[in-house]
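[Automated response] Your request has been received and processed.

Submitted sequence:
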Amino acid sequence: MRNPRPGEWLSEKLSQRYVGDYKPFVFVDGEGVRCSLYLSGCLFACEGCFNEATWSFRYGQEYSQELEDQILTDLGQEYVQGLTLLGGEPFLNTGVCLGLIDRVRRKFGSSKDVWSWTGYTFEEPAAREPGQARHAPRNRCSGRRPVRTRET
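Generated structure:
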């Protein structure tokens, strides 16, 4: 597992604007029915990661306006509680995430929540990207993933 120094990993230098997958109407990535965007690229390399394929910044397909429009359409369903950003590492893809969150907030206000699964601790993204707090996901599952050992 890797631990970045402040300013070492910058989204604008690393992100290739790729997504590994988009899954609408899922129940496993947060509370309620969600639309989940799996972003590509992660440098944490946590041992036991459940999604190693998304470590590559070129995994999957390029993020597009069509995909973003589809996400907004899907989020418009009354039964959908919100958007989940995961991956890969969402905070190494802020060019994608911040624009999408901004559109979600403009269209839905606070009626749809935004979750993020990240390897960063709560304090780290704020230190890396000052001034972006208004875009921050309201719910964040954060921190490096420790390896779980099985006791016999």
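Summary generated for your ticket: The chain has one domain: 11-141. The longest helix spans residues 94-108.
If you did not submit this request, please reply to this message.
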